[in-house]
Amino acid sequence: MNGSKVLWTLAVSVVGGAMLGGCGKPQPIVMQVQAGGKIFLRPKKGDVVQWKDANSHPVAVTFPVPGMSPCHESATTLDTCTVDKEGNVFPYICDGCADPAVAPGSDTGPLEGLALKAQGTVNNAQAGYLYCDPSSHAPKVYKDPLTAADGDKIQWFPGPNMATLQITLQLGTCAEPVINQAQQVCTVQPSAPKKQTYSITADGCTGTGSAGLTIK
Fold first, then answer.
1. Over the stretch 115-144, which tens digit does the pLDDT of each residue have?
2. How far is CA 196 from CA 86, 146, 154, 160, 186, in A?
């Protein structure tokens, strides 16, 4: 199962790279390693990304967070994306995929808020993606609830125009004392409560939001 996921991820990046190359010199394909251990395809604005399976059949993907798609195409479910937004992480879902995302941007500088290096051994990488609810404008997290296990690393990624964020979990959940825009990763401790509701504040959103965390 792990092998098939790796092959699928590489197939996505190679197809993207073929589109990037065009008639000129082939361009490098960047796979960005995040501080929490996630690895994201990092196309540039104007690149075309196609999702295909190992048999070259199109794979439909859906961008589930309202207003968060990097694509020029208006559909939220598609198999080809012309990238026209940079500077954020955009999660998507599809059948048989393991929590993927794309992180478009230029490599002349770090992705704002994500210039953190991976450190140490990662048991399993989990991710939460912040956004402002379209109706209430309160900060929300996708997925809700998040699920993790002792020793996992959870990284919260800021949404568009979020210069600051604060995740407040119950005491004993993380090895790190504070989770904010400068320290986005939580290393789950054995003392973490099995279930909890944590609070969220984020620049650009209104008030304090909440989300759930379940420890397996």
1. 444 455 556 889 999 999 999 999 999 999
2. 33, 10, 15, 26, 15
Q: Is the peptide bond before 145 cis (omega within 30 degrees of 0)?
A: yes
Sign of the CA dihedral 74, 77, 78, 82? positive
Q: Give the pLDDT confidence of 158-167 residue by residue, as tens digits.
A: 998 899 999 9
With 0.90 as the threshold, say if the pTM is over it.
no
The CB density around residue 3, as the number of other CB atoms within 10 Å, is 7
User: For residue 160, how many other CB atoms are within 10 A of its CB?
Assistant: 14
Tens of pLDDT along 67-104? 899 999 999 999 999 999 988 999 999 988 876 787 88
Classify each residue of 50-81 as buried b or exposed e, where b means 16 or more C-beta atoms within 10 Å of its C-beta: bbbbeeeeebebebbbeebbbbeeeebebebb
Q: Coil, helix or strand for 176?
A: coil
CA 209 to chain centre: 19
- Show the domains of the chain with their CATH numbers: 2-102 (no CATH), 125-215 (2.60.40)
Instruction: Determine phi and psi for 8, rounding to 5 degrees.
Output: -65, -45
190: its two tokens = 């054995």
Q: Could you tell me the strand order of the sheet in which 90-91 lies? A: 31-33, 39-41, 101-102, 90-91
Q: Tokens standing for 5? A: 């996921």
Question: Residue for token digits 């230029």?
Answer: 106
